[in-house]
Hints:
47% helix; TIM Barrel; binds flavin-adenine dinucleotide
Amino acid sequence: MHIDQILKKKKTLSFEIFPPKNKSGDISSIYQTVEALKDLDPDFISVTYGSGGSTIGKTLEIADVIKNTYGIEPMAHLTSIVSTKEDVNDFCMKLKESNVDNILALRGDMPLDDRVVCPKQFSYATDLIKHIQETFPNDFCLAGACYPEVHQEADCFENDLKALKAKVDAGAKFVITQIFYDNNYYYRLVREARKIGIDVPILAGIMPALNAKQLLRTTRMCGCTVPFELSTRIEKYYYNDDAMQEVGISFAVNQIIDLIANGVDGLHIYTMNRPEIAKSIFAQIPNILKDFYHYD
Ligand code: FAD
């Protein structure tokens, strides 16, 4: 099913998982993750795509199993900066064979290694969206990424927003935000996006901050700011992982309550392949979440 059809009827709750990284290439552990997440009745689960296409096979296999074994709607991420049109067509054909209908169409990060070739067939995510639309008309529901605190390469918020408008005009049916810990950035993005005619659902990407190192890595990679109240708690529990986890979960719960109260279109939880964290969030606010997306 195309996810935009679900979004026309209700608010959504979804999860992101990534193909497990291990030397043996064994990905069976991800199925326990999906099995556990199924208990929470998500509207869809998205599967990341390793930068430069390093996980193509695994992304396809996991999306296939989510759909055909667990009966949950999958969304496969696809990055295009090092892809040719043939690579993209091949990926899309394989998704079609598995009846996977949804793609998060991304440009991907510029490779740090200058020996990696960028064929320049897709300079931006918008080019990828246009290409898939033209080559596979109506086969896929395409989504895009957006950045409440502005993408690192953009020179200003206004130009980043114009790029987002172009992505939506090209055919993105909804967008998912980069991680943020200060909801005010999300509200600014939604407010300004609506002013320039971006009218698709903007799902909020939430990643609980579970330990200080992970949080610092994430903020460096994504360029998101850490609010003062979160940074003081991190300082206090820097060396106490269990307490830090409680801080991260309770901070995420408060973000979610505030987002729901302010009418967020959907919540997309970056699970880090740890379903117990998603379950802890649910355990704290079962009635608020039931009311939000009606799970039993
Ligand atoms: P684009 O939308 O193309 O934007 C990239 C930059 O170009 C921005 O600065 C934008 O303002 C600018 N721009 C866009 N169009 C134009 C234009 N026409 N003219 C001038 N400037 C323009 N990465 C992975 O490797 N794998 C994943 O699975 C993955 N999943 C993600 C999921 C989400 C929800 C998000 C938010 C990010 C994800 N990423 C993933 C990271 C993403 O690949 C990077 O943030 C990447 O640097 C940008 O990708 P994009 O699709 O947003 O690029």
